[in-house]
Amino acid sequence: MPRRRRDGSTFWADLTLTPLTDQHGTHTHWVAIQRDVTHERAEAEEQRQHERTILANAQRLGTMTEQLTRTQHIAKLGNWRRALGSDEMDWSDLVYPMFGVTRETFRPTISSVWDLVHPDDHPLLGELIEKMERDGTGYHCVYRTIGPDREVRHIWTDCMAECDERGQVIAVTGIVQDITAQKQAQAMVLHAEKLRSIGQLTGGIAHDFNNLLTVISINLEMMGDMIVPGDPAEELCAMALQAADSGTQLTSSLLAFARRQPLEPKAADVNQTLAEIRLLATHSIGERHPIVLQTQPDLPLCQLDRAGFESAILNLLVNSRDAMPDGGAITIKTTLRRVRSRSGDGRGPLAAGDYVVISVADTGIGMSLDVQEQAFEPFFTTKPIGKGTGLGLSTVIGFARQSGGDVELTSSAGHGTSVRVLLPAQT
Fold first, then answer.
1. What pLDDT was estimated at residue 345?
2. Cα(9)–Cα(193) distance, rounded to whole angstroms?
3. What phi and psi, each to the nearest 5 degrees, are found at residue 388?
């Protein structure tokens, strides 16, 4: 309780009262003991304030930790720590999926994690880790991992050393982020730029070469008119004209890839056009490769160049046939897809709107990732010499993009291929 001294100052006192009794049990006196506890009370109040500060800091730290965790989830950042000399690593929950493992089935140790790092990246990562443990030099780099699912992931990491008061490294900490999607996007951008550059070069060469072939063909025709029937030169002139015609078809394919082939689009019913193409292609494709047509009814019309569209579909049918040497059905399917916008995803701009999608799918040998990356390049082919020019898919993508659409390819080695041609629907 608060008390007042003679000089008027106040203090906090701890007062204890004890009654005294006589032999009959009657209270006769009271003994009072008063102790100045001002200092103790001040210390207690200071202690309580200190505890309140600690509690507030703990709450603030908890909030910051929660915000950090939320930020890590949004940014897909994981963190880890390892004490120097220990084989054990402490991983946050987000690190496990970056390596294709789970907390329940994987125990992060130096050796187990090292086994998940791509072998080609061992030298670089090993050198950086050794240097940091030796002199505390932090590092950041990108390396690849291969999880139990055999999927290759690209991991960005930023690591630093924890040192004691003497500057000796006692632990290593770091953050990691899965940047596989970014790497794939960059690769798609580079691939699109590569195709564009090839297209510009190819178009220029094909255009000039086509002009030269025109001169050659005209002169051969004039020469043929001057040759006497039965002259041995007559057959040689005919062979030269046939070669010139083949060259003209080749340049036509190159110009289609470069999107410099003039088109004559007209409003057309894609389903009906495909039915007509199917009738034409059935005989040439053969009975061992039946063509199954699955069309979505009431599709909107498309502005189609009939010759270019027919050539594109026939190219896809021939590719599917060749991918199934033992026979198998080829499925042509049509659907309608609404595209919001695909600008900037690495495959080139595709305006928002409705698109008629024509899918040609087979169950053949499929393509590896390396083959898929080059599939649309002119003259690239996996077929034996004399079996293909390598211009099939390049002319398909050239026609589609010149028509305002695009081409998508999905394939897996041993599990077939699906090529989807997107053409803008007529509004």
1. 41
2. 88
3. -170, 150
